[in-house]
What we know:
Elements: E1 7-12, E2 18-24, E3 38-41, E4 44-52, H1 56-62, E5 64-71, E6 74-81, E7 86-93, E8 105-108, E9 111-119, H2 123-129, E10 131-138, E11 153-154, E12 161-162, E13 173-176, E14 183-187, H3 191-208, E15 218-219, H4 234-240, E16 245-246, E17 250-254, E18 258-260, E19 263-267, E20 273-279, E21 282-288, H5 294-298, H6 301-307, E22 309-313, E23 318-321
Parallel strand pairs: 1-5, 6-10, 11-15, 13-17
Antiparallel strand pairs: 1-2, 3-4, 4-5, 6-7, 8-9, 9-10, 12-18, 14-22, 16-19, 17-18, 19-20, 20-21, 22-23
Amino acid sequence: xxxxxxxxxxxxDQSGEVxxxxxxxPEQLPVSFEAHTTFHIDDADWDVIDAQPSFSSDFAATRxxxxxxxxxxxxxxxxxxxxxxxxxxxxxPLDHLPDFTTSTTFQLGSDTWHVTxxxxxxxxxxxxxxxxxxxVAKIQKIDPSKLRYSLATISNDFPTVHxxxxxxxxxxLELAEDDWRQIDILPRTVxxxxxxxxxAIAAIHRNNDTGYxxxxxxxxxxxxxxxxxxxxxxxxxxxxxxxxxxxAGVRITYPATAMVDQGFAIRLPSQLxxxxxxxxxxxxxxxxxxPNSQTALAELDSLLSHYELIVVDWLRMAVYHR
Length: 322
């Protein structure tokens, strides 16, 4: 009778040091190590990282098999909601846990949950304590038909932006994204486009004002580049506003913080700020922040009259001209 075929198996850690050696029959080994494989050795579970050779036909012929393994570290994970109710309590391999240094969401049944707190926060600490406490909040699903807009209108254009590179203490005009061009300075030649947009905004107020927001919003059209046929330079602007103080630019603060490319902001004595951006040496957009009074607007009279411009307050549906 022939002796049974036995394979000499060496189990190595990732540094190449031999942890265990054993004589095993082909029947005790998988046909292939291409699929994820684990072994239970000395009351511990081990993940196979590599196997040489990886197919049974090869190691049956050589009767030698070298397997690189990594011990599976189990962490007891407790997941609770913000009220303290335990949702999950089970052992999970450390390698299966996500990196909680970034915003994390996961599924429990049909619900999506957002991680609000993790203790301990670092993977190295989790590996030592073998305990992980995760606090989560359910992400509520909202019927799109019940969404409300805080504004009746926004601009359809938005300038290109870049990461900040200005001096730390430089003064800039700060705007949320939706505040961009809410009070426009425009050439009188675009009055037809202004009128059509104001009509659409009035319809939003009439038909979509729920008392706690708007069920629809008008995205203004036809005013992407209002100075295309009415070129205006920064020198032209400053000549009409000789007492203006130039700031370091325009910073968009929400939803992300960034500086407007070739953006400018100038403060008038009344504290009114004129801002916009320049493209190819010409002003592309021109706007102001919310004026405190008609007196502040009066500081623009020279500019408006000289270049035949108007001020359009889209939220108040008002037009001011010299």
